[in-house]
Amino acid sequence: MNFKVFVPRDSAALAVGADRVARRLAELATARGLDLHVVRNGSRGLFWLEPMVEVQTAQGRIAYGPVTPEDLPGLLDAGFLQGGEHALRLGVTEDIPYLAKQERLTFARMGITDPLSLIEYEAHEGFAGLRRALALDGAAIVAEVTQSGLRGRGGAAFPAGIKWKTVAGTTAAQKYVVCNADEGDSGTYSDRMTMEGDPFMLIEGMTIAALAVGATQGYIYIRSEYPHAVATMREAVALAQAAGFLGDDVLGSGRAFHLHVRKAAGSYVCGEETAMLESLEGKRGIVRAKPPLPALEGLFGQPTVINNVITFASVPLILARGADHYRDYGMGRSRGTLPIQLAGNIKHGGLVEKAFGVTLRELLYDFGGGSASGRPIKAVQVGGPLGAYVPESQWDLPLDYEAYAAVGAVVGHGGIVVHDDTANLSKLARYAMEFCAIESCGKCTPCRIGSTRGVEVIDKISVDNNRVHQVKLLRDLCDTMLHGSLCAMGGMTPYPVLSALNHYPEDFGLTTPASQAA
Amino acid sequence: MTFAATQIDPDSALNDALARHASEPGALLPILHDLQDAVGHVPARLVPVIAEALNLSRAEVHGVVTYYHHFRAEPAGRCLLQICRAEACQAMGADALLAHAERQLGCSSHGTTADGAFTLEPVFCLGLCASSPAIMVGDELHARVTPQRFDALVAEQRGAA
After folding, report:
1. Mapping DSSP to helix (H, G, I), strand (E, B) and coil, where does residue A62 land?
2. Residues of B in contact with A342 (CB under 8 A)
3. What is the pLDDT of residues A297-344, one digit of tens each?
4. Alpha carbons A75 and A65: distance in angstroms, whole number
5. What is the pLDDT of residues A237-272, one digit of tens each?
6. Which of A352, A507, A516, B40 is 20–30 Å from A286 (CA)?
7. B144: closest chain A residue by CA
8. Strand, coil or helix: what is A330?
């Protein structure tokens, strides 16, 4: 009898010993004469259960976790290869409530397939979108993406179809499609999971974009802090190229699309699209003034579609199943689903793909199970280091771009970082300014100088050096950064700072909300 | 990354990198990556060579090397230890872990231990935010790292050296 076992290869599984588990399992199989096939799948995204090992049985896939190498002899004795009972047995994977309650569209294959198997990718609806796109003209592809309501998932939430239409409408000898995979926001890892766990989906989405706008060259700009994503993406591009999904003649259509993987070099601001373009051109990652829009003058001065990993990754399904299928999820002007990432001090941290409209409270408690420390949750930063700290009074708002904007918060890239009641929000506000000072590209003064002055002012507030006056100064400074910065780096650093100050004044030594009047 | 005591000759590593990438548009970052991956840093004396090969000014190449946190002008210790300082890791004790690391290693952030064994670097997000705090030892990722686990990893490295 032969057995199929799945041991994830996602970075988050490797970081808790998945490779050691896979090695030990192979050794034990040899020693016991078992015919065992180990698949290194992506992660299902239930990170507190990693390494989560699954076995293929007649009842479906059964999960066990978290599994250490030391657990394996006992698991084998308990007959886990046939789904046997064991303290680590979690049941049928799909029935685990955390997964069963999700709406996985973009992450439908995640953790199920071998990320580098083209056969499995195609067997799970892969390349159906591309095949349909090849039968359409560019305008029809753009129309489909526009109708789906898909907005940029990197954080800016600009309608993808409108951006594509602008590039499609230009005339140029060379157009580009660039994927921003510089996922630098703390609390976010959905791009990383996609590149490590379902890389062909990104390749397919970018190829559809290229067909839509008439581009023949593409780049994926991946942060250097993601070595596994870089390696997997490079391997996937080579495989797709060899199989005719990329190259001079995409699937025999006569259309060319060449895709290149570029490694970034540890600069957060290069996640800003124009700084990323500079970096791809081999320069320092200094932000460009807009206009001109990158859609008109982007990479090497040519018309360029720039989208985030999840935006491109959402496209194959939209083409395969039609715009309406995707648009039917969500609320208001936030259509479709968002792969939300629960992170920080949370008991059940992981990837939760849900339609827009879910509340923070559902995410924190129904999915997340409360804090990891068991202490009360005090503050939740949504949308990365430039996102606001959201207090409990706002946890029942629906996750929706407009609803969040109305209270001065941002959905961003869907990262949710939880802090318990030991967190000091003035310290976190100071950190936001310090981070901005370290990562500012230096081109504009509000960001370059303002961030350093921000650290100093918060320090003075902390030691009560004329506190009331300093708070007024901090608000003035934030106002200048907000309105005077060239990009979101300086322009949004005030979000965490002001939200901390407004919602947690006691952490700044201010006793009453009256300080907000300043 | 962990580097062996015997290093690849920087000049030939650069020649290889130039041969691979010099004809690509925007080739500077790929060349610097290959060079640093091979020899552990970007030696200052090679900056003019790179500049000439790419028809750039020395200032432009120097500017890029110094702009990006990833590139180093000086060799690091034999093992690079990166500790994430971003918010999700802070929420699970990253600040205390970094302070512990500084004490145990006897060097501060961005510093190298006296014996040249370790260079300690803060890093902003390894994408392991649901399993924080996270660190990278050489090219190996580790999540949910306690001070005890950190000590064990350091001891493992010292044992392996």
Report:
1. strand
2. 130
3. 999 999 999 999 999 999 999 999 999 999 999 999 999 999 999 999
4. 11
5. 999 999 999 999 999 999 999 999 999 999 999 999
6. B40
7. A16
8. strand
Q: Which of B23, B29, B83, B89 is the best mutation test for A, with the most CBs of A within 10 A?
A: B29
How far is C-alpha A86 from the geometric centre of its chain's CA atoms?
34
Scanning the structure block, which residue is given the tokens 């789906």?
A148
Q: How many Å apart are CA A268 and CA A276, to the nearest integer?
A: 10
Tokens for A5? 């076992």
Q: ipTM, 2 decimals?
A: 0.96
Q: Exposed/middle/buried for A392, CB within 10 Å: 0-12, 13-18, 19+?
A: middle
The CA distance from B41 to B119, in Å, is 13
Beta-carbon separation of A267 and B68 below 8 A: yes
Which DSSP category does A376 fall into? Answer: P
**Encoded tokens for A396:** 């029942």
Best CATH choice for the domain B79-160 from the list 3.40.30.10, 3.40.50.20, 3.40.1160.10, 3.30.70.3270:
3.40.30.10
The strand ranges marked E within A224-310 are 258-263, 304-308
Domains and CATH numbers, chain A: 2-100 (3.40.30.10), 118-327 (3.40.50.11540), 334-416 (3.10.20.600), 425-517 (1.20.1440.230)
The C-alpha torsion from A35 through A41 and A44 to A46, rounded to 10°, is 70
Delimit the domains of chain B by residue range.
10-67, 79-160
